[in-house]
Specification:
By secondary structure, the protein is α/β, with parallel strands linked by helices. 48% of the residues lie in helices and 13% in strands. The protein contains 13 helices and eight strands.
Length: 286
């Protein structure tokens, strides 16, 4: 397995990190051929709590999810660490917890707590100097420099685009490994970001269906200067539509027969999750 730092350092790599929220979705993404994965805090809220992304998920719930995913798949896992779950000391504990659980990177944002999804209105920010301290704390807490610190600013929606660029400069100086300026509102803003930072630090672009940022393909974003493109909540939205259709059909028909062509059968599911290989492996211990 190639680690995330190596992938980010490769001038020829163009990374797409699909959003996952549990070992099953992580396994499907790995089987699809991706090089790395993104564990979305929003998707944990959606799927573990059935709630929106407004700061309800705890650090222990995220860590437990990391442990389950990294026990099942080998791909580098980028983890949304929200605000770090507190001040700089909390950030250090969160970094140690995530790294120990098997994550390859933590994403930290400059919102106050409780935070909100980056594409929701009503966000509030902590001072830029406080966020810089959190970034330095994260860098000091990691056991290995291979563990990447992704700094995210939500300032565009709160303080404006120029302030977001200023905050980004502060976070780069504080030692961030990757820069994430959340929710640019136009192609022009995205171009200004890449023109200013591409040659200095890997940039992350976030594609949220229905969000504030114009939707572009990963190829287009890579061409413009973004190193890493995440699609954090796409799988949750895809599962929502499929789940609604399935339950509606079952309720209407009292049977899965009308929906059967849209479902995997018993053997297909077991093949995907590795039952034959696991049974064969277990014979070694009989």
């Amino acid at each position: 397995m190639t680690d995330l730092k190596t992938l980010l350092s490769d001038p020829n790599s163009r990374l797409i990190a699909p959003g996952v929220y549990d070992p099953f979705t992580a396994l499907l993404a790995e089987q699809a051929g991706f090089q790395c994965l993104y564990l979305s805090g929003a998707s944990i809220a959606y799927t573990r709590l059935g709630r929106p992304d407004i700061g309800l998920v705890s650090v222990s719930e995220v860590t437990a999810t990391i442990e389950l995913i990294t026990d099942r798949v080998l791909l580098p896992l980028i983890v949304d660490g929200d605000t770090g779950f507190g001040n700089a000391m909390n950030v250090q504990r969160t970094v140690r917890s995530f790294e120990r659980a098997g994550a390859h990177a933590i994403q930290l944002e400059d919102q106050s707590f409780p935070k909100r999804c980056g594409h929701l209105a009503g966000k509030k920010l902590i001072p830029a100097d406080e966020m810089a301290g959190k970034i330095r704390a994260a860098c000091d807490a990691r056991k290995s420099v291979r563990f990447q610190i992704i700094a995210r600013t939500d300032a565009i929606a709160v303080e404006g685009f120029d302030a977001a660029l200023d905050r980004a400069e502060t976070y780069v100086s504080a030692g961030a490994d990757v820069l994430f300026i959340e929710a640019p509102r136009s192609i022009d803003q995205m171009q200004q970001i890449t023109q200013r930072f591409t040659d200095r630090i890997p940039l992350l672009a976030n594609m949220v269906e229905g969000g504030m940022t114009p939707l572009k393909s990963a190829d287009e974003l890579h061409e413009s200067g973004f190193k890493l493109v995440i699609f954090p909540g796409g799988i949750a939205r895809a599962m929502l539509r499929q789940g609604q259709a399935y339950y509606a059909s079952l309720r209407a028909n009292g049977s899965n027969a009308p929906f059967q062509d849209n479902m995997a059968d018993f053997d297909e599911l077991n093949d995907v999750i590795g039952l034959p290989a696991l049974l064969q492996h277990s014979k070694h211990y009989e």
